[in-house]
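@channel sequence for tomorrow's demo:
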Amino acid sequence: MKYKRQGQILKIIKDNKIRTHEQLIEELNKSGFSVTQATVSRDIKEMGLIKVPNAEGGSVYAVASRIADDGDKHINIFSDTVREIDCALHTVVVRTYPGMASAVAASVDSVMRTEFLGSIAGDDTLLIIAANKEKAMEISEKLRKIFNSKGEKNA
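C-alpha cells (generated this afternoon):
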C-alpha cells in the first residue's frame, strides 16, 4: 500500500502544482487513499521531495532527482534565493530565504557533490562540510561566484 501511495504522490506532483500538505492530502483522497498529515509528511521525507520555485512566484513540491538532472539550470534559478555565504573552519554556511534551503541544497549537491564531504539543509540555512579549511574557503568562493552572493565573511 505504501508504495502504491508513494507512486500516486509522484503522479500527483508531476501532474499538479502542489503547494501544501493539505493539497496533497486532498488529491490523495480523491485518488482513493485515506491518509493523515503525518503519513504524508513521512512520505515526503522518505521520497526526498523538496519545494522549488515556480513561475507564479510560489513554490511547489518536486522530486529532488529532477533537480539533479538539470543542476546548472536550477542553480541559476536559485541564485535569487541565496542571501549570504559564510565560511568558518571546514564549514560553509549558505543562508537563503525561508523555505528555500532544501532546493538550493539539491542543486548544489547535484553540481558540486564531489567537492565536499556532505551537506544538510534546514528551512533557510544550508551547511556544507568540507575536508579542511582551505577546501571550505574554495567552496564558498565558488558558491559566491555561482550565486553572485555578497557574503564575504571567512574565519
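heads up for whoever presents: The two ends are 50 Å apart (CA to CA).
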